[in-house]
Write the structure tokens for this entry.
Amino acid sequence: MNHYRYYFSLLRRLPHAVIRRIMRKSCQSYPATAPYLTGKYGLEIGGPSGIFCRGHLIPVYSLCRGIDICNFSTQTIWGKPTNRPRFGPRPGKQFVAEASDLSMVPDATYDFVLASHVLEHVANPLRALQEWKRVLNPEGTVLVVVPDKRETFDHRRAVTPFNHIEADFIANTPEDDLTHLDEVLSLHDLALDPPAGSRQQFRERCLRNHSVRAMHHHVFSLETLALMFSRLQMRVLTATIESPYHIVAFAQKADPAEHKLVRLHNLRFQTSGLAHNVARAKRSS
């Protein structure tokens, strides 16, 4: 397979990484995010993640008091949870559980939840967000990072409609779901994903996704995330699109008395996401 497009895409991203490393440049929303995590104890789903390390996009590991880790398996294709000590202030508990079922964790246990490039691998993302909200203390926060599909191998796929995500939530869709299999097999750009192998190897991996979890079930946008947080009565504090291929959303558990205002508050983030898409389309035309 010709990997020219993949390596070209890496070269395009390289300046962002180099500049950020030299200037210690974090994401746009980091100054607003940091106070909510400083000195706090949290849970990371799918960690540890380089993006949260010192000198990277969202360097929160150095701020918090500690972090527990949760993965669907003791070993994943992205690494082992036992690698945790080299990322954070100290190793915490290591949970093996589904992102959408944290039943071993009591309500209101953590100050925050982190998840970098996890939600797209979850068949029922709204159920997962509901669980992450449940384990938060009052006024606890969730920091979610998902791919900006326009710069990834998902660029040919359409953003998953919110009503589809909500339908999965209502139907309690399980993690072995393969509803999006045909779409993924048809539209996944293998030229931007060399580790996936050949078309046949990619297909075989997708068919055993329940044990691998490499497939992207859904494709998100900034406005979709805002709608998801609104559905769960969580207030979006910040939501940004970050180079080279990240969408970063930070939301807070709202007081029940404020639930009627949450949707109105989150509307501006839906609007800003749409405006960003329009501006980008004009620049590309």
